Amino acid sequence: MSTATHIIHKNRGQAPTAFERDVTRGQDFCRKFICPEESMRYAGSLEQLVFNKIQDLSPYPTIIEFGSGTGEPVISTILRSKFSGIIHGYEINADSAETAEGLIEEHGLDQHYVIHNMSFFDIPHIPKADYLIANPPYLPCGDKGLLALPSLCGGIDGNEVSKNLLSYNYQNVFLEISSYSNPIALIEYALNQGYKISDFQITQMPFGIYSRQDVVQQRILKMKEEGKAFFTNNCYLVGSALFTKDMNNGIDLSQEFLTCLTSIGYHQNLKPSGNSAMGLSP
What we know:
The chain has a single domain, classed as 3-Layer(aba) Sandwich (Rossmann fold). The chain contains eight helices and ten strands. The strands form two sheets. Strands 1-7-8-6-5-2-3-4 form an eight-stranded mixed sheet, sandwiched between helices. It has a two-stranded antiparallel ribbon with strand order 9-10. The N terminus and C terminus are likely disordered. α3 links the parallel β2 and β3.
């Protein structure tokens, strides 16, 4: 039975490696996805929720990664772990794929991490794997052409790519889920597909260069009015969720996950109360 690590944290509590510091320099934010904070969070969640557990399934596990980007999170995680399997990463952006391949070669990880410069959704035959992992696009936007980086569009509510990934019927799926991308509808979809959440983490994230775009802000404000998005002026939450179809693997934490992820934004005004405590005001 899995011990849930459903904690709210701001970072991994670990100093960045020299590799992690180096890869954030001199990047083009409009040609490929670059967000150091999110990449480090993704790497930390992968390490704790996937890589620390997957060796128990198989001595040589296989992982499929949707949207590898420039590869830093997975490379960092492999370097921190004793992973002995193979990861097939699918990345549609040619610049990102080229960067990832160069970093993989530089760190001697060719036997563990292979990049395919194509969309996972274009694969003619679904590859077998122990896990499907992804930090999928989740910017809510009705017209991806309005975004600085169109590939970050997650559809009108931001959860279309995640739903598509859950439809592939992998037994274990690791996804990053934003509190402003209609998480309730996504979890309902997962449950209808036969999944449960066996473990999760919640992380506070500031709005960044991509989520601060006007078209995104306008959309999520409308979604908030409709009860589909949850955030404050300062930040939002990202949930790292491990979905499984293994009904023998502990309890279902889907409700607990949603309770945490949708808790932000309801009480935004804090007032000092007596005895120097902080009281919530509706």
